[in-house]
């Protein structure tokens, strides 16, 4: 009998694959009550996982939090622009940060390599250095970035869970997910 290679184990903040999938579905469902529950779960993950939290999860939760605040009607337009703006600036900065080498590479080039629309980088530039853009543009930027995160990160994580599997396969898949949690973060970055 062939011996299976030993997987490296990494401790993760979520209880298992089911909780991970439930949070992803909750974040992207469009129902602000379910989104808030998913955001609360991500906050619990952050308290357990700290700086090891995958950047994609962090960025997604910040952007979804903006959408939940927006739908609540509790914030004024300027406050929403600042909230969306901070989340968008953090997204662009965080995903490009590790790709910066000793020589500074323009953000537009890094965004192009990551298949992020250039106008999102331009929006980040306006938010950081220029006049605040209209709320509608911030909302659109948030939607585009959330779609990018869903396609680039979340769907890839969900990919192998689209069919029913035996209990042993579920356990092996969870071990693989835990073992590759940090690697996935590096690939995404």
UniProtKB/TrEMBL annotation:
Species lineage: Eukaryota, Metazoa, Chordata, Craniata, Vertebrata
GO BP, sorted A to Z: maturation of 5.8S rRNA; maturation of LSU-rRNA
Organism expressing this protein natively: Tricholaema leucomelas (pied barbet)
UniProt cross-references to InterPro entries, sorted A to Z: Las1
Protein name: LAS1L protein
Chain segments carrying region Disordered: 164-189
GO MF annotation, one: endonuclease activity
GO cellular component terms given for this protein: Las1 complex; preribosome, large subunit precursor
């Amino acid at each position: 009998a062939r011996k299976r290679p030993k997987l490296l184990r990494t401790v993760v903040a979520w209880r298992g694959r089911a909780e991970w999938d439930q949070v992803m579905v909750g974040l992207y469902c469009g129902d602000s009550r379910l989104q808030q529950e998913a955001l609360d779960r991500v906050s619990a993950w952050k308290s357990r996982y700290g700086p090891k939290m995958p950047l994609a999860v962090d960025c997604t939760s910040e952007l979804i939090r903006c959408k939940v605040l927006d739908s609540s009607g509790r914030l004024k337009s300027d406050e929403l622009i600042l909230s969306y703006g901070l989340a968008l600036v953090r997204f662009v900065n965080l995903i490009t940060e590790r790709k910066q080498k000793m020589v500074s590479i323009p953000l537009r080039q890094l965004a192009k390599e990551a298949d992020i629309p250039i106008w999102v980088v331009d929006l980040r530039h306006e938010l950081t250095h220029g006049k605040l853009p209209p709320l509608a543009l911030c909302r659109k930027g948030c939607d585009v970035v959330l779609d990018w995160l869903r396609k680039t990160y979340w769907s890839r994580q969900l990919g192998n869970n689209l069919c029913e599997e035996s209990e042993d396969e579920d356990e092996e898949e969870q071990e693989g997910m835990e073992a590759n949690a940090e690697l996935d973060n590096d690939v995404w970055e």
